[in-house]
């Protein structure tokens, strides 16, 4: 089986786009990716379109991809609408890469697009709450509240219909377990947020471009202990796209800096105990095997920092350090631009933003531009191999969908 | 590239299942398909899950496949949630077949599941209304009302929030054009509904099992002229599944009557003029080419008779007769069980039912059982080659998604 090649990428700036609809956002990213690839839309043989929540936010369900692509003058080709919560765009990428690598198509579009802002913010949070088994919400919330009470943690009531995402309660509970088990501190989690704020300050596509000190992060309003607001990814709108081609098509097109997809592993979650291999470790292990590399070979990573503690824990799951040493790794500066293995040079979900169904392809956009040396002030010097990790939803005791992608120039 | 093989199929009875949720419906179909294939769920390498409207009906969005499959004890594998309105299940099948044929996997599950009934029926119809460009609903409704007024047709006000599906207005307008152009009669459309009612009366899985005469169809309440109620597919709940394997895996499993997928063509719609090739003709032509057959080689067809006139018009688009001769074909009895080319022996969407995201795989379930000779009183004798046609949504002047599949035993 061949490997797929990323011929072009494009994205909108992420943020609050109350006056811009799904179509305009998607169109901007698609046309940018086509221009970047140097191909005409008529060359596309199929499109995979990720979106998680338009049905619940704008009322557009069922044929979201066709509606968005038609506004960019694209139709008639097979359009597959895919959905995997916050991993919807990675799922579109995974399908596109698998089809191209297997020889089904040689030129395919992967698009992720999301409108998450709604004048009524509760609607946005309720939509995010649909990324779990909705019949179990009451049970899930009870367990989270019990965990917070047991550990004396401060948190506002959350859940469907409330003013913040229940996912922050998941992350807060995991963060408290990490603190108890390994002595990790809230200051170390805050350091992740401050690092990503610095990175975001260098990224013109980032939703937030203001730098923050660790003390500023710690002093911000508490969302769910130990998470203050800048430790939680924001609500956002946006789109990101990639044109995926076969190696022979890349040669035919004369793509100047072809980026090869060495692995794109998709898995669903299940129930697992604390010491079992969860979806992150599983996907990362399979991706390393498929790409024939180890964590020491990575030059740059885009990780799913929906919360700051998540990034710190992923360091361990990626094999960048041993279990329990994530706190020491952030303290060492290794994951900052200029360090040994920069993580989230884009600013990550925390600062670049997190329009859920677009995030996975925004990570790929950042990695491709890093590997091509196009990132200006946030460039990771000499980056040749990058990894993206994108998770979505919750099922049992794990993420519902997880995708890990390794790209190389 | 190899051809994919259907190793097993299963479905629930379609109908009004107010007390049965998505999970129980999906689980029943999945377990039936696994049992039919004679394989354990642990053999599945990936799952493609089609659902169109759970987000708008039950509130379960984002990770519908994981939630349903977990209830059947299936997880950890890649799960891709796909959506293409009424063609969602075919899209799942298309992805499963493409992946298996290309050698990415050798054992894959395709599932379609839908809960469309809601105590508030307006909610069901509003959800169906999301299968168009929702920003254009006002424009679409105005054009439909104008068309009805011009032709002096009787119809109740429809659209989002109303008590019936706007799609019946699309079908009614197309039916009136066919009547004007070719002299087709309402009685001929009614004959399609009566034929499918007879077929449904022989199908224990059908939502409606009562036979109807042509006069009874014509005397039923008018929905949108010339469509009376039995000429319109009903609201329904249900699930259908198929286990797709590679030819070598089929041999390894010793599948007794392997059904080969000779073609599974997916396309999206666009704008086309009345005499242009629309998505149905395009998909059918490509499917015949890929399978190396013509319409004369088909023994049995499951068509997307969301309305009775649609089936009659598809006769022409499938090449079963010349343009304008659909009325004569239904009059001849050729498309009834026992005729030259039986269409919708299951009862079709009109009588077997139409839980939108499940329909495409229910068609495949019927064809597989027909080709194996398992259909009892509704068996099409000696059927060796079957075709399914499944459309979804509306974009421009065409269906948003169309899938045509040819299977052979």
Question: In terms of topology, how is this protein built?
Answer:
The structure is a homodimer of 409-residue chains.
Chain A: E1 5-11, H1 22-37, E2 46-50, H2 54-57, H3 64-70, E3 79-83, H4 88-101, E4 107-114, H5 121-128, H6 137-150, H7 167-182, H8 186-201, H9 214-219, E5 222-224, E6 227-228, E7 238-245, H10 247-253, E8 259-268, H11 279-291, E9 300-302, H12 308-318, H13 326-332, H14 348-351, H15 359-371, E10 385-395, E11 398-408
Parallel strand pairs in A: 2-3, 2-4, 9-10
Antiparallel strand pairs in A: 1-7, 1-8, 4-7, 5-6, 8-11, 10-11
TL;DR?
Two copies of one chain form a homodimer. Chain A has 15 helices and eleven strands. Chain A has 409 residues and is α/β, with parallel strands linked by helices.
Structural descriptors:
alpha/beta; homodimer; Peroxisomal Thiolase, Chain A, domain 1; 409 residues; 11 strands
Written account of the structure:
2 copies of one chain form a homodimer. Chain A is α/β, with parallel strands linked by helices and 409 residues long. Chain A has a single domain, classed as 3-Layer(aba) Sandwich (Peroxisomal Thiolase, Chain A, domain 1). In chain A, helix 12 packs across helix 13. Chain A is globular and about 60 Å long. The two termini of chain A are 19 Å apart. The model of chain A has no long low-confidence stretch (mean pLDDT 94). At the A-B interface, helix 3, strand 3, helix 4, strand 8 and strand 10 of A face helix 3, strand 3, helix 4, strand 8 and strand 10 of B. Strand 3 of chain A pairs antiparallel with strand 3 of chain B.
């Amino acid at each position: 089986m061949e490997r797929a090649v990323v011929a072009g990428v494009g994205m909108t700036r992420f943020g609050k786009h109350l006056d811009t609809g799904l179509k305009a956002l998607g169109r901007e990213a698609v046309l940018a990716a086509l221009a970047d690839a140097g191909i005409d839309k008529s060359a596309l043989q199929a499109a995979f379109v990720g979106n998680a929540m338009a049905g619940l936010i704008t009322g557009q369900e069922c044929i979201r991809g066709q509606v968005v692509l038609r506004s960019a003058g694209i139709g008639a080709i097979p359009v597959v609408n895919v959905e995997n919560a916050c991993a919807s765009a990675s799922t579109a990428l995974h399908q596109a890469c698998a089809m191209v690598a297997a020889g089904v198509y040689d030129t395919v579009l992967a698009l992720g697009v999301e409108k998450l802002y709604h004048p009524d913010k509760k609607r946005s949070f309720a939509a995010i709450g649909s990324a779990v088994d909705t019949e179990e919400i009451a049970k899930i919330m009870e367990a989270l509240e019990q965990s917070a009470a047991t550990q004396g943690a401060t948190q506002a009531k959350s859940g469907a219909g409330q003013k913040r995402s229940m996912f922050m309660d998941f992350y807060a509970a995991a963060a408290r377990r990490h603190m108890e088990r390994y002595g990790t501190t809230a200051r170390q989690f805050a350091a992740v947020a401050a690092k990503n704020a610095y990175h975001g300050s260098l990224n013109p596509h980032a939703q937030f471009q203001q730098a923050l000190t660790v003390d500023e992060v710690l002093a911000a309003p508490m969302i769910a202990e130990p998470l203050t607001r800048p430790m939680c990814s924001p609500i956002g709108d946006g789109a990101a796209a990639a044109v995926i081609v076969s190696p022979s098509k890349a040669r035919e097109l004369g793509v100047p800096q072809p980026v090869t997809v060495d692995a794109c592993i998709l898995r669903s979650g299940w129930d697992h105990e604390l010491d079992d291999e969860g979806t992150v470790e599983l996907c990362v292990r399979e991706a390393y095997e498929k790409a024939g590399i180890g964590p020491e070979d990575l030059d740059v990573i885009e990780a799913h920092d929906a919360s700051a503690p998540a990034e710190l824990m992923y360091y361990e799951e990626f094999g960048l350090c041993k279990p329990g040493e994530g706190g020491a790794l952030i303290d060492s500066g290794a994951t900052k631009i200029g360090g040994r293995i920069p993580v989230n040079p884009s600013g990550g979900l925390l600062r670049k933003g997190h329009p859920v169904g677009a995030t996975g392809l925004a990570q790929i956009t950042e990695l491709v531009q890093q590997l091509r040396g196009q990132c200006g002030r946030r460039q990771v010097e000499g980056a040749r191999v990058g990894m993206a990790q994108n998770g979505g939803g919750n099922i049992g005791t794990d993420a519902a969908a997880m995708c890990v992608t390794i790209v190389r120039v």
